[in-house]
Specification:
With 243 residues, the protein is α/β, with parallel strands linked by helices. It is built from five helices and 13 strands. A six-stranded mixed sheet has the order 5-6-9-10-12-11. Strands 4-3-2-1-13 form a five-stranded mixed sheet. The protein has a two-stranded parallel sheet with strand order 7-8. Helix 3 runs parallel beside helix 4. The relative contact order is 0.18.
């Protein structure tokens, strides 16, 4: 029997009129999951998770400092965390290269430290299937300037664990005449630039993670809820899918 698949709508960097409009629920009714790779208005994410009515996982982009005051309600932050949805193991590592002072900007050394921390959850799950990032891998779909340079540590993480996809944003279509939506990383991982939006299908391994999935998901949801609670004074903002 072939592996099951999930259809994913990935978005990044720009709020598109075609999505922020009526009828989007019918156009994307067959989508199973939404992923936001950063630099998007919180209201945009809230609109999509409400109208399409499917879970939306997100990481921060370098311009998402407004989330500190106004995070996207009803969505799940997976930055520096793992999350399992219907058997699909997802890891989130948002942010860009540090080119000035900013909440979601990191040096290579800082990103490497984040990779090590989240790798504890990855080992617990025996690997992961999709990496959701904002910045690309160094030398694969990035640019030469420091703000849009990728991270070597993300590539090393993918080479070690060989997930099916790395989904990122940050490098806009208009930044280069040679924009390529999908590229290959060493080890076979597909690097997908979600600028604007893109849909794709991903295989779901026939594995069961039992109590490990429950522990990891509950921790991620708790942290995600607390990000919202910092400003709103409430808990319960995240949606507890598939615990």
């Amino acid at each position: 029997m072939p592996d099951a698949t999930l259809k994913i709508l990935a978005i990044a960097d720009v709020e598109e009129r075609s999505l922020w409009s009526t009828g989007v629920d019918q156009r994307y009714k067959d989508v199973d999951l939404m992923l936001a790779a950063g630099d998007l208005d919180a209201d945009y994410l809230e609109y999509l998770v409400t109208v399409i009515n499917k879970p939306l996982l997100y990481v921060h982009g370098n311009h998402d400092e407004g989330y500190v005051r106004n995070p996207p309600h009803g969505c799940i932050c997976v930055d520096d965390a793992a999350y399992v949805y219907r058997g699909l193991r997802i890891v989130g590592l948002g942010g860009s290269r540090r080119y000035r002072e900013g909440t979601y900007m990191y040096t290579e050394r800082q990103m490497r430290r984040r990779v090590r921390r989240v790798s504890r959850q990855v080992r617990m799950l025996g690997g992961f299937d999709l990496l959701l990032a904002h910045a690309p891998v160094l030398g694969v779909g990035d640019l030469d300037d420091i703000p849009h340079r990728g991270f070597e540590s993300l590539g090393q993480m993918c080479e070690r664990w060989q997930p099916q996809y790395l989904v990122h944003g940050h490098v806009h279509k208009g930044y280069s005449a040679q924009f390529v939506r999908e590229r290959a990383l060493a080890g076979g991982t597909r690097s997908l630039n979600a600028f604007g939006h893109v849909t794709f299908e991903v295989r779901v391994p026939k594995l069961s993670y039992g109590w490990k999935q429950s522990v990891i998901n509950r921790h991620t949801l708790k942290v995600s809820d607390e990000l919202t609670a910092q400003e709103e004074g409430i808990l319960g903002a995240g949606w507890s899918y598939d615990l």
